[in-house]
Automatic annotation (TrEMBL), chain A:
GO terms for molecular function: sarcosine oxidase activity. This is Sarcosine oxidase subunit delta. The lineage of its organism: Bacteria, Pseudomonadati, Pseudomonadota, Alphaproteobacteria, Rhodobacterales. GO terms for biological process: tetrahydrofolate metabolic process. Pfam families: SoxD. It comes from Halocynthiibacter styelae.
TrEMBL record, chain B:
InterPro entries: TrmE/GcvT-like. It comes from Halocynthiibacter styelae. This is Sarcosine oxidase subunit gamma.
Amino acid sequence: MRIKCPLCGERDRREFYYKGAAIDLARPAPDAGDVAWDDYIHNRENPAGRTKDLWQHEMGCSAWLVVERNTVTHEIYGVELAENVKRGMK
Amino acid sequence: MAELIAKTPCDGLLPITSETVSLTELTPSAITSFMPYKGREKAASTALKKACGMALPGPNEASGTEGARAIWSGRGQCFILDTGVPADLATEGAITDQSDAWAVMQLAGAGAQDVLARLVPVDLRLAAFKPGQTVRTEMQHMMASITRSGDTSFDIMVMRSFAKTAVHDLHEAMKSVAARG
Ligand SMILES: [Zn+2]
């Protein structure tokens, strides 16, 4: 498996650290309520298909990345800097 | 007061040679990380050029020559080697003295790229990795910065605490390449 870091280029999987669902970027407001916080902390979709995950290019440029991939076919659709994704959410 | 003796990170470990490939320690007079503040990248690059003679390197780029070099070292960061960074650059970015934090080595000679191919998961063949290019990658299990510094030479930086392991792993790979002729 190879991931194309937007800064470094295509790199081997062993350079990356896997975090989990990119939902981490959508932190609820402090007063969003128990349901929103329960979802944010505990509930994950675990899809068979397209998913967006957070990875860190730990051994490379250190950037956090959002990788959109398919858990069934292992196809990678796109990689973006998490910084830019987060900015686009505001 | 006790008299303290400064030791370089690879003191007692280098130089070593195996057939055509040699590994020597480089001792830059200073290593400084420079991280431009958000939105100040352009001004920081101009200020760096004025102060040290080279612009901010982009991803996977290194610039300058011996005496003053800038090596891209990660997202929003570069290392300035061999020359001090004037304190007034702190208006454009964060400056950190890292002089004692890194072991710097040069792997050189015919076959140097074959040695690295055994340790690094990036294509560093001479045809693919040109002089002036750099990568942040892993060498075995160590975070490393590798820069093509000349015809057959690569400058390798690892954290100082990894000096002995890095030298060991490079030496084993050098012997292995030499054994195969
Ligand atoms: Zn990267």
